[in-house]
Amino acid sequence: MSGRYMPFSSGAVLGRENLAKLEALRNPHAVKIVEKYVELCRPAKVSVITDDPEDIAYVRQLALDTGEERALRMEGHTVHYDGYHDQARDREHTAVLLPPGQRLSRGINTVDRGAGLREVHELLDGAMEGRELLVRFFCLGPTGSRFSIGALQLTDSSYVAHSEDLLYRRGYEHFKKLEGSGFFAFIHSAGELDERNCSKNIEKRRIYIDVIDRKVYSVNNQYAGNSLGLKKLALRLAIYGANNEDWLAEHMLIMGVRPEGKGRVTYFTGAYPSACGKTSTVMIPGQTIVGDDIAYIRMDEEGNARAVNIESGIFGIIRDVNPVDDPLIHTALTTPRELIFSNVLVADDVPYWLGMGRDDTPERGVNHSGGWWEGKRDERGEAIPLAHPNARYTMRISELENADPRLNDPEGVVIRGIFYGGRDSDTNVPICEALSWEHGVYMGATIESETTTATLGETGIRTSNPMAIMDFMVVPLGRYVANHIRFGRRLRNRPRVFAVNYFLRRQGRYTNEKVDKKVWVLWAEGRIHGEYDAIKTPIGHLPMHEDLRAIFMRVFRRHYSEEEYDLQFALRLDRLLEKIDRMVEIYRDEPGMPGEFWEVLKQQKADIEAVRAETGKAMLPPSFWV
Question: Residue 85 pLDDT > 90, yes or no?
């Protein structure tokens, strides 16, 4: 095979052992990809990494040897720093490569496919000179599962390769079972590095997604949201496939809800835009986590929706993780295990981050800006905090005390409920259940995330983010929504759908406690099992006060008054009509929006307008509909 598939001059760079590892795959398509980018990127050395523990250990040690990571005092802990201007997803330079004649929806960045491929290949030309190319194989999803997709990663960053060992399942043996090109491929180079081993040419940072060829190209960056192809970049490829094959690839948590004393577990997925409560929901005490970010959902032979977490780790925001609000994560971050911190402050080989619940944080140390001291300012004169607000931790889910025992089940878990969460200060109730599957899809498609100004209680700008997926969308939105409707109609046992909002305010103060989301989640679980009645309203089924009162007392030993209930679950009719008008404005020019979406919208608007005219009131308590 080496003579047939590896006729390039870099055979000496690969070496006999690496050639043998590639030959064992019996996959010419994968080999040709390796061949092409070894020749283009011209690394000084190539290492093919299998599932062998010695190979995996080599990658971890390489990250330390190259300086991309540094060991910390706690056993197994390391720290990595991205460049000062490479600290988040680069939306401006992340684009879908679009063939001529195609169009996508609002807000989706695109580049002509031919021009984009030429540009990114020019940037990759010689990008790895003097460095080592790591050839990695992963499995997106549990090994041996019909859900799973193979992933080939080429990178010259040992930090990227090490991170993927924590976040994904090993896939070299999985590749031996593949036929042809049935996998995703990711080509990444950090590009030229500065004296801190950070990507230097940030102005030439590019992240291009080629859904036609199932490849992602990423160059001149290290921040994991841009460089780890298997994460949100792979999600984009999966969304394209799902919407052509009648399944769902979603930006969703997967959790097991376990009501105390009931002896059962009910699995939910949930989509929440950033800062809308996704992580705090999946980490509710007493419940279990299957995944916190990405779900593949397919129909099984019994007509159920089954989901798997394609990842096996967490790339989480560390800000505000403290022993009071996030005890499980905090315990994991402060005890020995294999774990990567990124862009935190380090002093005396101990990591520190914003909101960690300590008053004795150091006044000096090293962070994403280099040497740091309290009062340090950047080139714009802005104060540099002790850690970046988007600082992260990377670890395996199995290291968490609340990891679900079915985390790696190749059959996935049966999904009985779906949460759609937004951030809204003045319109939506804390939880309501959809009237139908189509209404549930409408709930997901009309998610809004609201920012707030520095002035307490003053509302900011609402951003539409359907299904919390817009940052990763690669198909027309109408087609995506229609696929959701079709998928649900094929199911014999459709999940119930719930809209949640943890951020309702009155006079600048939240109307509920941070922990109250546990009550809303337990009510939804009970509804699925027929334990609670509900009040039918134009926006969906609302909880009854006596049921919530009983759950509050059982869970928190706290009285939940009727006054609290009426404040939280009153329908704010004028605000709801304003939201409907915003949705009309957003979607009226969106081609291909399914008729079912408009039917739900028109019915809801008519029902709310009718009761508004009947009562002359802008706000009505749930008892109006009893």
Answer: no
